[in-house]
Structures are given as C-alpha cells and as structure tokens.
Amino acid sequence: MSGQWADSTRRDELPDDWYTVIRPYVLHRDEHRCRWREGRIVCGHHANQVDHIVPGNDHRYENLQALCAHHHAVKSSREGNAARWRETVRRPPERHPGLI
Known about the structure:
By secondary structure, the protein is an alpha+beta fold. The protein has helices at 10-13, 18-29, 69-90, and strands at 37-38, 41-42, 49-52, 64-67.
C-alpha cells in the first residue's frame, strides 16, 4: 500500500459496508461533485472520495461529503498537521544543556 494509507489503520475503522453502500450513496447524493467550500465558493470539480466532515468515526450520512482528490488531500493534511501540533504543544520544554 502506498501514499496516505501506507501507515494508517483508518481503513480498519471503516464500517463493513463503507465501499458497497455508504461511499457510493454519498457520491451519488452529492452528484460526484466536490463539496469543498472557500467562503461562499464551492469547488464543484469531479469528486471520487468521501470525507468525514467532523474527523473521527461518525459515519452517519450527514457527517459525510464528496470531495475531489485535491481537496481531500488538503483537508487531511491540515487535520494531520493540527494533530501533530497538539502533540508537540503538550511536551514539556527541554532544559538547556548548560543549565543541567
């Protein structure tokens, strides 16, 4: 496996019917159009990916949206960076070697 899924266990967390029912339903509902919003402008390009609006394991249809590959990557990157930032903020600062 390559790309964003290489070290991820995310696929294991998806419901059994993700690829057969949920994902096709959301893409059809959203007419295979990217729902990414920048202010009042909606992308509208061809969407082939389904995204959780609020990250996590809420797989209800109202928490899912169709996105194009570009905007799904942008959103995932922002969420990953935010998670890494939260981790680094929690670490206590290192002591200066000259003060030890």
